Amino acid sequence: MTTVQLTLNIPESLALAANQAGLFKPEAMEHLLREAVRKKAADELFVIADELTALDMPPMTMEEIQADVNAVRAARRASVR
User: Fold this and answer.
1) Are 32 and 23 in contact (CB under 8 A)?
2) Using CA atoms, how far apart are residues 9 and 1, in angstroms rounded to an integer?
3) Cα–Cα distance, 37 to 17 (Å, whole number)
4) What are phi and psi of 80, to 5 degrees?
5) Which residues contact 31 (CB under 8 A, 6 or more apart)?
C-alpha cells in the first residue's frame, strides 16, 4: 500500500456533505478512485473505437483474423524457446 496525502480546495458545503456521507474514509476514497480509473479507461476505449470507425476500413475476413492469430502464436512460441 502507498500513502498519499491530498489537500482539496472545495466549497465548504461540499466538504461537509462528503464528510457526512463518509466519502473521506480510506475505503470510500479507494472505491471512488478505482471507479474513476475504470471510467477513464472505458472512455479512452470508446475514443479509440471511434477513431477506428472513422478510418472506414473494410472488416477483416476470418482468414485474415486467423492468419494474425497464427502469427501471434508463432511469435510467442519462438520467444519461449
Assistant:
1) yes
2) 25
3) 23
4) -75, -30
5) none
Percent share of the chain, pLDDT over 90? 90
Evaluate if residue 80 carries a pLDDT over 90. no
pLDDT tens-digit map of 37-67: 999 999 999 999 999 989 989 999 999 999 9
- Amino acid identity of residue 34, one-letter, is R
Nearest-angstrom CA–CA distance, 36 and 29: 10
> What is the phi/psi pair of residue 68, to 5°?
-65, -45
**For 35, which DSSP code?**
H
Inter-residue contact 39 to 45 (CB < 8 Å): no
| Distance linking the first and last C-alpha atoms of the chain | 36
